[in-house]
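Dig into this one:

. . .
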Amino acid sequence: MSAEEPAHHHEHGGGEDKKRGQDSWNDSAKEYNDMGLASATSVKCVDFTLAFMKNVKPYSFNAGSGLKVLEFGCGPGKVILGLSELVSEGVGMDLAPNMISIFESAIESKGLSATYRGQVLQKTDASELPKAYYDLVLAPFVLHHVSEPSSALKRLVEAVLPSGHLIVAELVDLEEMMEEHNVERGVHGWLEEGRIDGLLEGLKLPNLKKVKAEYMTATHDGESISLLIYVIERVAV
């Protein structure tokens, strides 16, 4: 396990926590963007999401159509940019302006300015998201940092259109690495599958369905890290 810890885009909490997390990730944005193991986790998320969405929404890939996609806590935007073949409108949101700057530079260099844009989050609770707008919302390695994960999860699923999906990713089996390298755990620690199950059930919304939870391993230069991808559907009623 590497000392490179790829998952912490930012910290979510009160005003002081927001400022502290924003400063930290502004300072480390370039380092994070260049981190090999972080990139490997992004590739896993991209590969999973491409395969999943092509299976559940094949009609979206007809000529001239695509999906409206949001990545919440996008960091340098490697996940949402990797989905460009799906996307008609792609928005990456992050607390750290320097992360958004890297994301926007990548948008320009890839010639995707017509379909992608970045947005710096002004609040840390997902309350800025529009309701029932996106076909797909991504929340990779971020939900554990939110001070009220249940409220944030509710706002994330509310941003999804009926028949759309929220895909959450978390790292798993990190105790040994965290102890060895004194890695901070985020607000609540990493969210295991059972914890996300509980959050979803606690929302008591009848139109939400757990579609699947899949475990996988990302590797880079002989180092590896395990992750969980958890898919929620907002069922049309």
Notes: Helices lie at 15-27, 29-33, 36-56, 78-81, 97-109, 149-158, 175-181, 193-203. The longest strand covers residues 160-172.
